[in-house]
Specification:
The protein is an all-beta fold. Helices cover 0% and strands 36% of the residues. Keywords: Calcium, Membrane, Transmembrane, Transmembrane helix.
Length: 157
């Protein structure tokens, strides 16, 4: 809450000769002008889980932020598609966990998750790739560029 002092006169300014101080209490509230945005790095969002993982095993931790205050900025997480019932998302913490249903070894499960603020503004969907087993090495960029001076000694990084 913000307090401001205002001067008031019974006559239009500048004719008023008498001024009165009035305390006016103003409540300033935030407008819901932001949507939740994902803050997980790096993208794409990749995870692995043991094929024999028990129910409740943590797979991935989602994180989104909303620039608004109060209810407008409180973020909840929702699994909107994928996982065949084998994964669940904790609405408050954003943790993805196994449900206890059996996982198929070496299968990739694609989970689509959205974050929403207290008034229902939604983020863009995030796709989390979960492999039940070993994941082969993957590059996150399509290409990498490095520069090596021509006078670099052999065997030096």
């Amino acid at each position: 809450q913000t307090y401001h002092k205002l001067l008031a006169s019974p006559f239009p300014f500048p004719l008023g000769l008498e001024w009165y101080q009035v305390r006016v209490e103003l409540t300033v509230t935030d407008v819901n002008d932001n949507i939740p945005e994902w803050s997980m790095v790096p993208a794409p969002y990749l995870a692995v889980v043991y094929p024999d993982a028990t129910g409740g095993s943590q797979v991935y931790k989602l994180s989104a932020r909303d620039g608004d205050e109060g209810l407008n900025g409180e973020v909840e997480y929702f699994l909107s598609d994928g996982g065949d019932g084998r994964f669940e998302v904790d609405r408050k913490s954003g943790q993805i966990r196994t449900t206890g249903l059996p996982l198929q070894r070496d299968r990739e499960y694609l989970l689509t998750v959205v974050a929403a603020d207290g008034l229902g503004s939604r983020s863009a969907p995030a796709i989390i790739s979960v492999v039940a087993g070993a994941r082969p090495p993957q590059f996150t960029n399509a290409s990498f560029t490095i520069a090596i001076p021509e006078n670099t000694p052999e065997g030096q990084p």
